[in-house]
Specification:
Blueprint lengths: L12 H14 L5 H8 L3 H4 L4 E8 L4 E8 L15 H13 L5 E4 H4 L11 H6 L4 E9 L4 E9 L6 H19 L12 H4 L8 H11 L4 H8 L3 H29 L1
Antiparallel strand pairs: 1-2, 1-5, 3-4, 4-5
Helix pairs in contact: 1-7, 9-11, 10-11
Length: about 260
């Protein structure tokens, strides 16, 4: 469905007051808890949903981060394997691009978008099987050349044409609210394949960077993934090399002493 042009003159005083309250409360969001409470409040009158999936980054290069906000038990952002969401995010992003990056609603049952080809083996995947409608829109960052995608899922067919104008009005405030919330930390994957059973003095961030290096990512790509500059990644790499050099020298000395 393609949204019609928004005409504020057609809104009732009640609707205008509701939007004003939503916007006022949205600027106070500072944490994931604040975000959840905000989305479960007045926002539900305009955008009824059980799950909101937000994703941002370079979709063409598959350098994407995501956040899941839901009041459903166990449905949370999965910190274990970010690549698990790549098929879903890729499908949704392509649908948005094909529609000239305009908001649209989707009947999940008839589209089969979430049911064909793959399934998420987690609490989110199970919850998505019970969803019947979705609403999708995004924001293109022309300066950072990244896209931010927002998808609302409902177990009822209540995400329809009437919600298209709501997402157009509220999306900038939703995006601002999410940008004010610190992303969940990335998982620190084991380094046993390259460095042995311990991290040899590396900090958590340094160990994390080493894992992305193992996967062939460049400094610029790692910077996008971790939301830091390529220059910061380079500085971390210099510290890593120094620590590994000290470790290797110490291990060599220990072997010499053991002879």
């Amino acid at each position: 469905m393609i949204p019609e042009k928004i005409k504020f003159s057609s809104f009732s005083a009640e609707h205008l007051q509701r939007y004003a309250k939503i916007i006022e409360e949205g600027v106070t969001v500072r944490s994931h808890v604040d975000l959840l409470r905000w989305l479960q409040g007045e926002v539900q009158h305009c955008l009824p949903h059980e799950i909101m999936l937000a994703a941002w980054g370079d979709f063409d290069s598959n350098l994407i981060q995501h956040d899941v906000v839901s009041a459903l038990p166990g449905v949370r952002t999965d910190p274990v394997n970010p690549t698990r969401f790549s098929p879903l995010l890729g499908d949704l992003y392509n649908c948005w691009v094909e529609r000239d990056k305009t908001p649209y609603t989707l009947d999940i049952g008839t589209s089969g978008l979430l049911l064909e080809g793959w399934r998420l083996q987690c609490s989110l995947g199970q919850a998505l099987q019970g969803m019947r409608s979705s609403l999708l829109h995004g924001i293109s960052d022309k300066r950072g050349r990244h896209d931010c995608l927002y998808v609302f899922f409902s177990s009822k067919n209540n995400l329809n044409s009437s919600t298209l104008s709501a997402i157009e009005i509220l999306l900038p405030y939703l995006d601002t609210a999410l940008r004010g919330v610190a992303p969940l930390p990335h998982p620190i994957l084991p380094l046993t394949d390259t460095l042995g059973s311990d991290v040899h003095g590396l900090t958590g961030r340094e160990a994390e960077i080493m894992e992305w290096v193992k996967m062939g990512k460049t400094n610029a790509e790692i910077g996008i993934i971790l939301s830091i500059s390529a220059f910061t990644v380079k500085n971390h790499m210099q510290h890593i090399f120094k620590k590994l050099d000290v470790y290797n020298r110490t291990r060599a000395v220990s072997k010499m002493e053991a002879i």
